[in-house]
Amino acid sequence: MQKVSLLVLSSVLGVLIGHPSMYAQNSASRVSFDDYRKECLQQATQQGLAVASANDLCNCTMSKIRSQYTIQQFQTLVQKSKNDRATAQRLSSIGESCLDSVLYE
């Protein structure tokens, strides 16, 4: 279970840090929270998380992010997180808290 949870978390965090397939389909100015959620669902299920759990994880993650940031602020953080460990950790902590609640509730 721990191996799966680490793979899922790394995939979801990859989405938060700007998964390449998302940007191949959308320019950065048109990416929405829903685009991130859809990519999160795809990555989480590809890593073996059940669809219901993936929905819970991605909905939780995006809900927490939306409550704290506008899409522009979030995109700025995503870009900054590529080179700034503290910013990457801030985004990671959101995904980690949601993963814990989904897998261990």
Task: Summarize this structure as a short list of keywords or feature phrases.
single chain, 105 residues, mainly alpha, 80% helix, 0% strand
Give an overview of the whole structure.
With 105 residues, the protein is mainly α. 80% of the residues lie in helices and 0% in strands. The chain has 6 helices and no strands. The longest helix has 20 residues, at 85-104. The radius of gyration is 13 Å and the shape is globular.
Run of helices and strands: HHHHHH
Low-pLDDT runs: 23-28
Kindly state the percentage of residues in helix.
Answer: over 70%
Beta-strand portion reads under 5%
Give the beta-strand count: 0
Q: Structural class of the helices, strands and pairings?
A: mainly alpha
Span from first to last CA? 14 Å
Largest sheet, in brief, is: none
State mean pLDDT (0 to 100 scale). 79
Shape: globular
What is the tally of helical segments? 6
In brief:
The protein contains 6 helices and no strands. It is mainly α and 105 residues long. It has one domain.
Annotate the secondary structure layout.
Blueprint: H1 2-16, H2 20-25, H3 33-46, H4 51-68, H5 71-81, H6 85-104
